[in-house]
Amino acid sequence: MRFYSTNSPQTSVxxxxxxxxxxxxxxxxxxxxxxxxxxxxxxxxxxxxSLADIGFAISQALFGTExxxxxxxxxxxxxxxxxxxVVELEPGKMGVLELFHGPSLAFKDVxxxxxxxxxxYYSKQSDKEVNILVATSGDTGGAVAMGFHNVPGVxxxxxxxxxxxxxxxxxxxxxxxxxxxxxxxxxxxxDCQAIVKQAFIDLELNSQLSLSSxxxxxxxxxIPQGFYYVRAYGQVRQQEKPVVFSTPSxxxxxxxxxxxxxxMGLPIAHFVAATNLNQVVPVYLETGIYSPKSxxxxxxxxxxxxxxxxxxRLANLYGNDYDRFKANVSGYFYNDDETRAGMRQIYDQxxxxxxxxxxxxxxxxxxxMNETKSDFVGVALATAHPSKFKPLVEDVxxxxxxxxxxxxxxxxxxxxxxxxxxxxxxxxxxxLQTVS
Length: 436
Ligand SMILES: *Cc1c(COP(=O)(O)O)cnc(C)c1O
Hints:
The protein has 20 helices and 14 strands. The protein is an alpha/beta fold. The chain has a domain at 84-104 and 221-397: Rossmann fold (3-Layer(aba) Sandwich). Strands 4-5-13-10-11-12 form a six-stranded mixed sheet, sandwiched between helices. Strands 9-6-7-8-14 form a five-stranded parallel sheet, sandwiched between helices. It has a three-stranded antiparallel sheet with strand order 2-1-3. The longest helix has 16 residues, at 108-123. The radius of gyration is 21 Å and the shape is globular. The two termini are 36 Å apart. Pyridoxal-5'-phosphate binds next to helix 12.
């Protein structure tokens, strides 16, 4: 398997290159080539198995002989010690695919853990330490920190905006120690991201350290997200109805991953793209005009993206053809009041507690069901556990929310961070001190 850039499809790089250098130098996005056509039989055969087994089978199809079967099996089973179950809300008609059973309680664990396992595999072949830099506004940092914790040959530096992530999210970043170092920046998420970008173009720093990124444009965070669409298909296929997935979206990595396995042959009848007021993709589907905007702050903050970086990938998967895109994806969007009302309605109707992102996905699915008369089984992706947004969820539902043990124990741990001003030179200086 090789990877071409969406900006120059005629040239391609190896998997290792795409993994360690997230972004091609022409600023396009990497896409796998050729994308194997696996066919319905392949998916029928693996769909009833565990997430790890499904990941192994698809990885084999992708990597061929590039990585041995034994190594691929080990790395997929190491990456996925948890399941992604479908919980029925309306028997035979609608369910939620719970993607929050991993260590950081959000779907981003799936991508981060697979990427970490692959980096660990390739790092064994070289003795140069890899330094991962990542800026986070919340969920990404936790998944990356936990995914890469104790991975040999890899050091992780996480930059987060001081005072702007939730207390439990901060604990996920700052209490692991070992090879994970948190930098608490006096500034915004954009400042953190600007510092990371500057590090990647600092020739002097790059001559001393081998830098890599774990941001969501890395194709190896996206590929494994396709595995749970297959796992979900395995849980609903006995209904013998077409399957529709609804994906609450921000940067559109999750939906691109679904479109990629659909392209590989998984029988997905349709997608619902559900967003908050950062509605550029639903507007594109309605009008055919794509106009990225600056992001608007909402209560579903992990989806506050005005210029989704994976739109290019999604369009590419549908042949850059608006009619084909529209035939496969329907868009819906909700403001904060509608989201709160949706969280209440879902709780009243199904006794199911959701985070605001998941509520938007379920609402999109309900809207699509009401609009189309066809018979199908709908699966909405539950992207985070409601306890990650505990104060909001408790306020909206007016009831206490349980915090799972693995998140609750973090509350008593001591935060360890390096507090820096939002200045590139300060970051560089402390980074070089921590790695020396
Ligand atoms: C990251 C995130 C999303 C958005 O996913 P994309 O792949 O960026 O579209 C949705 N919900 C939660 C909880 C997230 O953390």
